[in-house]
Every structure is written in C-alpha cells, then in structure tokens.
Amino acid sequence: MIVAIGHTKGGVGKSTIAVQLATYLSVIKKIKKVWVIDTDPQKSVSDSFMERNSTSKVSISCASYTNGKELRQQITTNKDYWEQIIIDIGGRDSNAFRSALMLADVLIIPTIPRSYDLAALNDLYSILEDAWGVGSQVKAKAFLSCADSQGSANIEAIEYIKQFPEITFINSPINRRKAIGLASACGLSVFEYTPKDQKACIEIENLAKQIYGE
Q1: What's the pLDDT at 50?
Q2: Which residues fall within 8 angstroms of residue 185, CB to CB, at 6 or more apart?
Q3: For a designed S-S bond to 147, which of 40, 140, 173, 193 qualifies (C-beta 3.0 to 4.6 A apart)?
C-alpha cells in the first residue's frame, strides 16, 4: 500500500507521523521492505533516517524526490518491490504534492485543532477534488495532530473536518508529546526511544492500526 502524509499547511506534524508510521511498520510489525519517500525540500525525514541508519541495526530505506515527474517515475518503477511505501509530502501545493495524490492509495491528513489550520483544509480539499477529477483513487483520512488533552477545541475541530464529505475522520488523536518529537528527529519509533512514553506508544499504535489494520 502507498500511504501519503500530507497537508498544504506547514507545521502540522507530517514528517513526524511519516517517521512514526515507518518505524512502527519496521520495528513492531517486522516488515522488512518499507520505503519512505521525502518530497519536502527541507528533507527533515531524510535527515532523520540518515541518523537512524548510522546507528540502528534495523535500517529503513529513504529516498528524496522533490520533482513530481521523478517521483512518478521512481514509484512506478519500484513499487512492486516494496511491501509498504510512505510518502511525506511538503507543506505546500506543488507538482510533487499532486503527483503523490495520483500515486497514493490513501492520503493521511494531520490536522491541528486551531482555526488557521482548520481553514487550510479548504485549500487541500480543492486540490483533492482536482486529483479525483482526473482519475485519482486516493482515499482521504484526517486525524487530530498536536491535539489538546482537554477543552472544546478537539470537538470543534472534529465537527469542522466532518463538513468535508470525502474526508474520513480517524478518531485516533496524537497529543503534544515530547517523546514523539524527540524520537522522530532521530528516526526512531517511540517504542525504541528511552525513556519510553507509554501514552505516546498507545497513540501511535492506535493511529497505525486505523490506517493499516491489525
């Protein structure tokens, strides 16, 4: 399966979730052929896995393609080799973003429960409609990223997301947890990072199961 993690809004946790899903598949599910593709010119995910692969016995393959044409060529050529492919899409509309929507089976949309971030869903939905209009079969699923542990913001965000008929809401929030950010920066799963944050592990596992199944 090809899973893209994307949003036109920056800073919503795309790269963090890409790292956590990839490491969950490799470390917990023991899937050997996981391929991560970084389309963001900042190459945060590439840097994280470069650090991981210099020290960990469980390496994870990561490539960087910021051009849409090259992205299409590489995935079309190599997709049958890999069991799971994860594409981290940069936080802006680009040819790589639109190419990823044509290639992916699922788009996972991290959404912060704040007004500016929610409003950005309108721009993203327009791009999705364009992709669907030219034949994309990608399914769109959103979850709360950097969610609040209490208060009404989460509830309001969920209601806003549900206004978009073709975006499925995943009820597996990822709260603001230091362990998730620190682990991801090193290319590590929260299950590998010490000290282990059990709540972070539960949240990542729940999200992964919503995406990939048991």
Answers
A1: 95
A2: 48, 51
A3: 173
Per residue in 127-137, pLDDT (tens digit) is: 999 999 999 99
**DSSP classification of residue 81:** G
If 0-12 CB within 10 Å is exposed, 13-18 middle and 19+ buried, where does residue 141 land?
A: middle
Indicate the length of the chain as a whole number: 214
Instruction: Provide the token pair at 160.
Output: 């806003």
- Residue 195 burial class via C-beta count within 10 angstroms: exposed 0-12, middle 13-18, buried 19 and up: exposed
Which two structure tokens, joined as six digits, stand for 90? 């940069």
The answer to whether the CB of 146 falls within 8 A of the CB of 174 is yes
SS3 state of residue 75: helix
Tokens at residue 193, please?
A: 């990072």
- The pTM for the full model equals 0.94
Q: What does residue 5 show for φ and ψ, rounded to 5 degrees?
A: -110, 115
